[in-house]
Amino acid sequence: xxxxxxxxxxxxxxxxxxxxxxxxxxxxxxxxxxxxxxxxxxxxxxxxxxxxxxxxxxxxxxxxxxxxxxxxxxxxxxxxxxxxxxxxxxxxxxxxxxxxxxxxxxxxxxxxxxxxxxxxxxxxxxxxxxxxxxxxxxxxxxxxxxxxxxxxxxxxxxxxxxxxxxxxxxxxxxxxxxxxxxxxxxxxxxxxxxxxxxxxxxxxxxxxxxxxxxxxxxxxxx
Length: 222
Ligand SMILES: C[S@@+](CC[C@H](N)C(=O)[O-])C[C@H]1O[C@@H](n2cnc3c(N)ncnc32)[C@H](O)[C@@H]1O
Hints:
CATH architecture: 3-Layer(aba) Sandwich
Radius of gyration: 16 Å
Bound molecules: S-adenosylmethionine
Number of helices: 7
């Protein structure tokens, strides 16, 4: 994988994959997008006191970091499962300034979420437990992932990696979504929305982060 760090419009960095010609976050603002799509419309929207989260695509760990910071602030015991097929090389991770951009506490958490072991539970802080699975979601049965209240679906775009957005993958994710659980993604493509609706989610198109008109949130109402 050929990766390089680029700056985005809010001053935060992201990683650019030169083979796919795709970046890990919006060029209009990496932290802004992550905060809006997954934290504001997801973690803060869901009212569980002890949420379990499943993220597709750990990448730089930015969604994970922002969630961990808030878990401590809100004193919500949070269990965070994330799956990643291609962990980013440590050299690139060390150049990312997410921790420094946020707070001293964030720096410590960022280091811990990257230093901890894959495929086993890690207590990162009092309120945040992380399970990073190094695996391919296309082949994994997700048996190691607990039923989740909040799904952060942060795959590369449907035009770049259509296989990640296939019906059978989305169905697999629906099956591990808890009752009243929510599914978030930055994509608002009509095909994606229809596919998620077919899985069983009640879908809503929400205003998007800077640079995007819309994003999607689904609720598993049972
Ligand atoms: C948009 S990036 C994720 C950004 C990440 N959430 C963050 O905060 O940095 C998509 C991620 O999906 C991962 N990925 C691609 N194919 C995958 C697969 N088959 N299974 C699991 N992860 C995959 C990529 O390596 C990449 O890290």
